[in-house]
Amino acid sequence: MLSAAQMEIIKQTVPVLEDHGEVLTRHFYQRMFRENPEVLAFFNPAHQHAGTQQRALAAAICAYARNIENPAMLAGAVELIAQKHVSLGIQAEHYPIVGENLLASIREVLGEAATDEIIDAWAAAYGALADLFIQREGEIYRHQTEVHGWQGFKRFVVRQREAASDNIVSLYLVPEDGQPLQPHQPGQYVTLRVTPENGVPVMRNYSLSNRPGSEHYRISVKRELACDAGAPDGVCSNYLHDRIAQGDVVELAPPCGEFVLTPVAEAGKPLVLIAGGVGITPILSMLYAALEQQPDREVIFIQCALNGAVRPFERELATLREEYPNLTVHVRFSEATDEDRIRALHDSEGLLDSALLDQLIGDQDAEFYLCGPAPMLKHGWRLLKQRAVEDADIHFEFFGPAGDLAA
């Protein structure tokens, strides 16, 4: 239990954390991977190389320190992280490893400024936070067992693979043991584990792109290439594209994630789904669920992509557009080609903007779900706030470590 004095010490460290947070977290990860290499499998090296993981952790530590007297303010962030931890199989015994390396890093980075009182206060603060995560993650593990029938990793067979676009491949996965699948919540992801030739298991989260209640899971994976010199290509995505074939076996953990389609809060309010690139995967699952479960609701689906070559699920969306009169699909390309224009593969060109939202939604109040790359989400958030959309009506998911849309 944190004392009042310890809470005050934690709050006093906020300015230091804001100034040195990334230095601290970078040191922390380097130290933990050196001292406890057994945890390496839980982390994506691309996020480490880009610094996004370090920045996300630094932001999380600052947020916790600022809200140390009222951790309920962080309930949404705690749920997101707890779901991610469960998806990767993180257990209670991993928390002391993180705590030991975090406290040691605070002392090593801050030097003499890290007094015994500061270390003791942060030890108590970390212990309280760890207890919170362990309790919530235990609940999620039990829920997975009750609903889906397993926790941890289970063997699935690739029943089918197909190209969704030039850079995205879809894998249809069924349980090797033949047991039926319980419906996932639209928007959830599964964790896939494979072991490439080097013998080191790799785990990655992939959103489920299929209709909830299907007899299979479908993941649709973009081939991730290095963004800059020295950065690694996506280890798992390239392995799935190049090496995994129909009939092969992979391992999956049960569905996780808090970015899910919620019941209609207000009758008559349109549902607007906005997808950028491969961010369409959870949004497409939501679309199926909304059309089947809310047949009288107006649904507006905005798909943003570079061009027709990398636009996934063209035929699938065309079929849905024909079958459901309450569905409007609008495709916008930011870098359309001449072939796209000749074949009329899109409805408009440019980035997502206010004019398009005005055209499709007008002055109606609506509920919005967005998923895609961080720049698009930041831009979309600003557009929606300019329209005075309430925070409660904006739902979003980043691919990769979460950031702050309002930054």
Automatic annotation (TrEMBL):
Keyword Transferase belongs to the record: no
Record-listed E.C. numbers: 1.14.12.17
All residue ranges annotated as the FAD-binding FR-type domain in the record: 151-262
InterPro entries: Cbr1-like_FAD-bd_dom, FAD-bd_FR_type, Flavoprot_Pyr_Nucl_cyt_Rdtase, FNR_nucleotide-bd, Globin, Globin-like_sf, Globin/Proto, OxRdtase_FAD/NAD-bd
Superkingdom of the organism of origin: Bacteria
Gene3D superfamilies reported in the protein's UniProt record: Globins, Nucleotide-binding domain of ferredoxin-NADP reductase (FNR) module, Translation factors
Catalysed reactions listed for this entry: 2 nitric oxide + NADH + 2 O2 = 2 nitrate + NAD(+) + H(+); 2 nitric oxide + NADPH + 2 O2 = 2 nitrate + NADP(+) + H(+)
Cofactor(s) this protein requires: heme b
A GO MF term: nitric oxide dioxygenase NAD(P)H activity
Record key words, sorted: Detoxification, Dioxygenase, Heme, Iron, Metal-binding, NAD, NADP, Oxidoreductase, Oxygen transport, Transport
Known role: Is involved in NO detoxification in an aerobic process, termed nitric oxide dioxygenase (NOD) reaction that utilizes O(2) and NAD(P)H to convert NO to nitrate, which protects the bacterium from various noxious nitrogen compounds. Therefore, plays a central role in the inducible response to nitrosative stress.
Protein name: nitric oxide dioxygenase
Organism taxonomic ancestry: Bacteria, Pseudomonadati, Pseudomonadota, Gammaproteobacteria, Oceanospirillales
